[in-house]
Structures are given as structure tokens and as C-alpha cells.
Amino acid sequence: MYEKRERPTVKQKKLLYTGKAKSVYHTDVKGTLIVEFRDDITAFDGGRKDTLKNKGSYNAGVSAFFFSRLEKNGVKTHFLEMLDGNRMAVRELSMIPLEVIVRNLAAGSIVRNYPFREGMALKPPVIVIDYKDDSRHDPMLNDDLIVALKLATPAELRKIKAIALKINTILSTLLAKQGITLVDFKLEFGRQGKTIYLGDEISMDSMRLWDKKTGESLDKDVYRFNKGDVMTTYNRVAARITNKAKPTASKKKAAAPKTASKRTR
Ligand code: 5GP
Questions:
Q1: Which residue's CA is the nearest one to ligand 1's atom 11?
Q2: pLDDT in tens for each of the 265 residues of the chain?
Q3: Does ligand 1 lie within 6 Å of residue 220's CB atom?
Q4: Quick one: which of 212, 203, 261, 210 has its CA closest to 86?
Q5: pTM, full prediction
Q6: For tag attachment on the chain, is the N or C end more exposed, with fewer CB atoms within 10 Å?
């Protein structure tokens, strides 16, 4: 998706951290890290794992695209540049162990855990914040717990929520133009000094996306629930998001989107 640079501006050094689908490396430049998007895919707390060729580059390309668009709209992100198809140079942050989830339609865990009907519109959007800790299965937090655990100050929490909602507006608008509904997505933030930056990734692994016309899943739910060939989905949706695909038929006909509640799963 991104052309390899002739002379990368940073050199990769020692491994700093390996996650389920990404690895983070030190570099020769102080304050700059490299995030490598690997071809690994996992679900159910790592209970299911596979390695799928090109998966890393699709997620890296989509993340880079979103980070650039967010920066243009005044959202501070860790993104500096793509070094090749899978590797991104990023600003080094002190990460805050929170998973900030913005939900526009009810799906996934909130349908399992609360009496929401799948596809029900959540207006205004619902922000759910989980504690990022695999050993505890990422339990849901509330504002008091976040402050008591000293994960963020009340002012930082207000800021994080405001940024998350701004990102939601920007991404929902962008995706709607490609005939895609942004159902929900997960963000992670970090600090550099007192400034809060968006970190991690925004990709098909961390968003729930539904085709406005067909209701089809265009994200990791395809893998989680065996809804089809996940790499075909990622390939197509990455091209669609980054606008490399031809306009969809729905665009030409400007068909009214089906309501999410009619979505067949
Ligand atoms: P849910 O709580 O319904 O499982 O997830 C809500 C949204 O956040 C989905 O778009 C899901 O992909 C994303 N999400 C939740 N937890 C994680 C996580 O640990 N890793 C990633 N990559 N995404 C997550």
C-alpha cells in the first residue's frame, strides 16, 4: 500500500515489546520507535491464532491513512511515517493502559453483557473504557476507578473522551463516503510530557465495520466468527477505505442504506 522508502530516516534497533499482532522496536533516533504490523491474527484473548500473508500490511496501510487524516484534522497521533509496507515510525509515548471504545451501534460485548439489541443506534455514542490487562480479560472501568488507579487524572480523562468523540466524527464521516458504517472501534492513548497522543493502531483488527448496503462485516468479526475469507475482506476494505477501489454501486445509485437493525448476520 505504501512504497518502500529509498533511505529510511530511522534504523531499527533492539526489540522493545511484542504484542499479539505488532512488535515495537527501538531506533537510532531518540524518542522514535518503529511499530511492525505482523501477519499474525488472534481472537478470543489469543485463544485462536493464525498467520495470514499480507494481513500486517493491510492494517498498517489503513492505520497510516487514518492517522494522517486525523493529524490533518488537528488530532495529535504518534504516527510519523511509513518505512515500508509493514513498518511505521512513531513518536515514543508513555502508554496509558486503557482501551477506549467508542460505540455508534450496539454490537459485540455490550450485546452479550447488557440488554441491547444488535444494531441498535447509540445516540449519543457510548464510550466504554476497559483496563488493558489480558490476564484480567480487560475488565471494564469507570471514571472513579480510572482516577483511583491513577491511570489518568480527571482532566486527562475528559480530554481523552473529547478526542475519542472527535475521532469518531472524523472516521464515521470518512467511512460513510465509502459506504461503510463505523459500528465501534478501540483507541489507545499515551503521553509525551503532558501532551496526550493517540497511539497504537486504527485498523480492521480494532474497528467493527458494516457495509451500509449489505450489512456484511468488513473487519475481524469475519475471522472471529468464520464469516468468510478474512484476507479477501481485509484486502477489499483496505482499498475501499484508502479510496483505491472504484466507487461502489451504492454510490452510483445513491441507494438508501438499510437500517442496521435489518442486518442479517
Ligand atoms: P467488543 O467489546 O465488542 O469486543 O469490542 C468493541 C470494539 O473494540 C471492536 O471494534 C473490537 O475490535 C475493539 N476491541 C476491543 N478490545 C480489543 C482488543 O483487545 N484489541 C483490539 N485490537 N481491538 C479491540
A1: 206
A2: 444 455 568 999 999 999 999 999 999 999 999 999 999 999 998 889 999 999 999 999 999 999 999 999 999 999 999 999 999 999 999 999 999 999 999 999 999 999 999 999 999 999 999 999 999 999 999 999 999 999 999 999 999 999 999 999 999 999 999 999 999 999 999 999 999 999 999 999 999 999 999 999 999 999 999 999 999 999 999 999 998 754 444 444 433 333 333 332 2
A3: yes
A4: 203
A5: 0.90
A6: C
How far away, in angstroms, is 204 Cα from ligand 1 center?
10
Regarding the beta carbon of 37 and ligand 1, being less than 6 Å apart is answered no
Q: How far apart are CA 113 and CA 265, in angstroms?
A: 19
Looking at the CA of residue 130, tell me the nearest atom of ligand 1: 16
Strand blocks (E) in the chain = 12-18, 22-27, 32-37, 40-43, 48-51, 79-82, 87-91, 94-95, 98-105, 121-131, 180-187, 189-192, 195-198, 207-211
Which among 101, 133, 222 is the best mutation to test ligand 1's pocket, defined by most ligand atoms within 8 Å of the CB? Answer: 101
Give the strand order in the sheet containing 94-95. 94-95, 189-192, 195-198
Atom of ligand 1 nearest to the CA of 208: 10
